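Escalation from tier 1.

The customer reports that the assembly of two entities below gives different structure tokens on two consecutive runs. Tier 1 could not reproduce it. I'm attaching the input and our single run for tier 2 to review.
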Amino acid sequence: MTPFVADVLIPVGKIAAVVLFPMVMVVVMIWLERRVVALMQLRLGPNRVGWQGLLQPVADAVKLFFKEDIRQRGADRLLFALSPVLVMFSSLLAFFFMPLGAPVRVGSTTLTLWVAESPVGLLIVLGLSSISIFGIIFGGWAANSKYPLMGALRSVVQILSYEIPLGLAVLTVAFAARSMDLVEIVRRQEASGVWYGFLMPVSLVIFWISAVAETNRAPFDLPEAESELVAGYHTEYSGMRFAYFYMAEYAHMVLVSSLVVNLFFGGWLPPFPSVAALAFLGLVPGFVWYLVKIMFFLYLYVWIRATFPRYRFDSLIRLVWKWLIPLALANLLVVALARFLR
Amino acid sequence: MSRVGRFLRSVFLADILRGLAVTLRLYFSRKVTVEFPEKVQAPAERFRGLLRLHRDENGEPLCIACKACQRACGQNCFDIEGKKEEGAKVMRPTKFDWKLDRCSFCGLCVEVCPTNAIRHSHEFLLTGARKEALFFRLDGMYLTGEALQDHLCGGCRRDR
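Tier 1 run:
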């Protein structure tokens, strides 16, 4: 292999693929969400544009592209323009540390399906996903309007609170794997033969509840509660800037689903590795397993949204401070003890 | 239920799982949507569609040009003139103008009509490209079905 291919073509191709992958998933998710929610409400949902309405998100994007770009009088120009980009950028960047599949052997070289492997990959991903709340805060504040501001305030309280149980749940995984490296965590699950989701179901539930709250999704979508705040922090946004917020929400969902899969469900690993009769499952490429697993969690997001009504703000905060944080602390203690004694 | 039972139910997310089961069942159940242009739902029995004049079984017009409908109409949809022919028993309309663009389908004219000549039909496709199509003369008031749609929407592109 020539140095040009190894040092330029492959990294650039990987970066392009890693940016493209969440965007494709966003398009699929927008369609999936509208279809699945509609089917659960005994409707049909969009089924006219393309096969089963699959091109509906494209039609929506074209519509938004031609919409007028409106800025409130007195809005902060820089922050108003910056925040949609910030939200989108932070969730896309986190994918660079996300293992998307098992290393593939091409000829004499192995092609890894992640752009960067870092010993603190988990921390970086969590940090980047928290950067997106700056986009929400700036967007809400810079619009110079009351509803976005209230949405931004709510999202600060909510996301800061839910980050604590999220971090504590992630810590148990780091304890079990003795690593903060996302690739290493998946490898440890392969070596130990049991996925951490089955080893530590409490961590999984805490992580998932906090992750739904982190992504501002129903039933924790207080920052954009339509019935109270118009559209929350992105009320004053229109056209492509709004589309950025909209797509970033879905990109963030894809990111969190990948995180759950990598931390708790063995990333690219095929299921039942110890059952000899199901060994043929290992022939399926790792990326496909990863895709199947994240699709389940993305479906769960939509399923939860179609099922539960929105929390009231005080019960939202009560849930995290009186239930999730004590539970996560106790869980951390148990996992740490178990790890210490073994 | 005891306090312990309630506590256990919330800890093991029993109610949450039950809620998810409800939506999953609905996900696979039959949908209520009727996909309109391909499938058309028949209007209800008492649906108030376009107003139509009717004839009796011998083909004689039922309308006697009494103008009761014209007086009852709140929007002044009607402009009716009648004439009693030599030797005829009742008056017949010589002019019966009805303006669809004014009509609100309130049904007052249908209620007051003494001979039941004017009735609501089940026609609900009202769109057209020309404003003149919303104006009906005496002969136009007897059109039904395809001929009516030709009057409303002659040469326009929608499926009829």
